[in-house]
Design a protein that fits this description.
Shape: elongated
Number of helices: 7
CATH topology of the largest domain: Glutaredoxin
CATH superfamily of the largest domain: Glutaredoxin
Bound molecules: benzoic acid
Largest sheet: 5 strands, mixed
Distance between the termini: 40 Å
CATH class of the largest domain: Alpha Beta
Structural class: alpha+beta
Number of strands: 11
Number of domains: 2
Helix content: 25-40%
Length: 211
Amino acid sequence: MTLRIGDTAPDFEQDSNIGRIRFHDWLGAHWGVLFSHPADFTPVCTTELGYTAKLAAEFAKRGVKAIALSVDSVDSHTRWIPDIEETQGVKVDFPILADADRSVSTLYDMIHPNANATLTVRSVFIVDPQKKVRLTLTYPASTGRNFDEILRVIDSLQLTDRQSLATPVNWKPGDDAIIVPSLQDEALIAQKFPQGYRKVKPYLRYVKLSG
Ligand code: BEZ
């Protein structure tokens, strides 16, 4: 099934290294980052899962829960985690789904047969507290993802959900944001953005954000 932005993230029940997980229940009111990796005991995946573990405090600050997935077994995950912890110098504090029956991989279209018939590619789904898919991303097996970018997208989504804003190219927290083009009422703009704004074009209006 191809999942698109705005779709409801399908619920599922699957085994993991911390036991059986019902996805929606496990998410609760949090944001979620569901990401697949091709296989346990592989170098790039080891660095990705280690880095994700290092971001635990950043995810927690934003109300986000991370969950990994591969088609390997619970036993494999359990044997691999100490390697991640040893080599990456961090405790793995998020679950890894053991999708041996490929039910979640199929539901989320994480196996791309022309890349590999049986292993998942590097998929990422950001899911919001309403269980809507807010970002999809797919990387090939040979390229480790940039998890700082995933955090950056979450920052942008959380900001733009709260205010009538969008974020420009390479935006990062603290940078100016953009007033959405649909907001044209000057009185409303003044109310929403008392700090004022900088108009470059009628459709390109920057605001400084405090804090
Ligand atoms: C890796 O994680 O290093 C990897 C996994 C599958 C294919 C290539 C690299």
